[in-house]
Amino acid sequence: MACNEPGVAVYRYRTVFISDLHLGSPDCQASYLLSFLDTVEAERIYLVGDVIDLIAMQRRVYLPESHLAVIRRLVTLAAEGRQVIYVPGNHDEFMRSFCGQSLAGIEMRLADWHTTADGRHFRVCHGDEFDHAVRCSPLLWLVGNPMHGVLVRLNRWLNHWRRARGKGYWSLAAYIKQRLARARAYIARFEQAALTAAGRQKADGTICGHIHSAGFHRGREGLYCNDGDWTEHCTALVEDSGGRLSLLHWSEEPRVLAYEPGPEHAPEPAVGSGVAANRVA
Ligand SMILES: [Mn+2]
Q: Regarding the domain with residue range 11-137+205-278, which homologous superfamily does it belong to in the CATH classification?
C-alpha cells in the first residue's frame, strides 16, 4: 500500500529514527518494517546503524524479497525528496567507509547532529562507541522476556528431570533473574555512557540504538533516547512538528510506548496526543 492511496491512514512526523533493522539476517521483521515505512511520513528519516547485517551475511546471505523491498522503499523515499540519513553501526561497519558520500540518494554519515523543531541539539550515533564504557556483552540482553509463569514451570520440569538423574536443585528462575538484573545494570551503564558523551559535547542529548532496547532516560547531562530495533521489538523514535519526541511500537495496532520525559513536574501529555494525533488520512 502506498502513502497517498486514498483511505489508507498516514501518520505524519517531522523526523523518524530507526535502527537495528538487521536486513540480510532472518531476524529482521521486514513485513512490519515495510508497513511502517508505507504508513509513516516524515521529512527526514534517520537510519541509526545495523541497517544491513553484514556480519550475519558473512555466515549466510538471507535476502528475501521483503528485505529487498525495504531497501527499495528507502531509496524511493530519498528519490521522492525525503532526507534519508544513514549512520552505520557495528554490524554494517564496512558502510562507514562511504561516510560523507551519498549512496542512491541516501546520505552516509559517521554520526550526525539533529536539531529538533524546538531548537534542541541531539547527537545521533549508533551507540557501539559506548561499548568500552559498559564492558558487558550486549548479548546478555537477548536473554529476553521475564515471562515469569513460564519460567517457574520450566524450572519445575527441569528440576524434576535433574532429580530423576540424581542431580541437585538448580534454580533456573534465579539464574534468569540474575541475568536480567545484569542486563538492567548493563542498560543503565550504557545510558550513562551516552549521557556523559552528550554532556561532553554540550548536546541536549544523545539519540542511538545498538542495545535493542527502546527507551528514554533523563539525566543531569541531557536526554538519552534509544530507538530500539526491528528484530524483536519493532520500535521507532519519532519527532512531531513541535519537536516532541516519542517512541512508537509498530504492529497491527501502532501505539505510543513512551513520551520523552519532560523536566520535573512537566504536565503529562494530553489524552489524544498519541499516535492518533499524527494521523492525517
Ligand atoms: Mn549494533
A: Metallo-dependent phosphatases (3.60.21.10)
